[in-house]
Structures are given as C-alpha cells and as structure tokens.
Prior knowledge:
This protein is mainly α. It folds into two domains: about 1-35; about 35-70. The protein has two helices and no strands. It has helices at about 5-35, 40-70. The longest helix is centred in the last third of the chain and has 32 residues, at about 40-70. The chain starts with a helix and ends in an 8-residue tail after the last helix.
Amino acid sequence: MIDWIPVVFVIFKLLTLGTCMFFAVKWHYDQGKKGTDRRAVLLAGGKVAGVFMLTLLGLGLCTFALARMLGLDLSLP
C-alpha cells in the first residue's frame, strides 16, 4: 500500500513553487516594462551582493570558531 502523505506534499510543493515562480516572472516582466533606472538597479544589486559576502564571511568565521572551540582538528594534511 502506498503512503499518500509524501505524494500529497510533493504535489502541494510543486503547485506552490510553480505558482510562485509564475508570479515572480510576471512581476519582473512588469517591472522591466516600467523602465526603471539602470544605475539604481546596479547599485541595489551591488549592495545585496556585498551584504551577502559579508554574511558569508561572518558565517565562515563563526563556524571556524565553533569548530576550534569543540576541539576539532582543522589542520590541512
């Protein structure tokens, strides 16, 4: 007998993600028709990329500090 819970959850997930992707593409298409300022878009994208890189660096440092605190061997062979 098949377990229906995973089937229902996978179908729900696919429908939800498909709907969200449709509206995301539609929203971006509509925004492109507005004619936004290219410089403002590049500046915002640069800020997002910078914040992402700083967050990634902070996460790496926290992971390294936690690993050293737990006594894990972090030396390269």
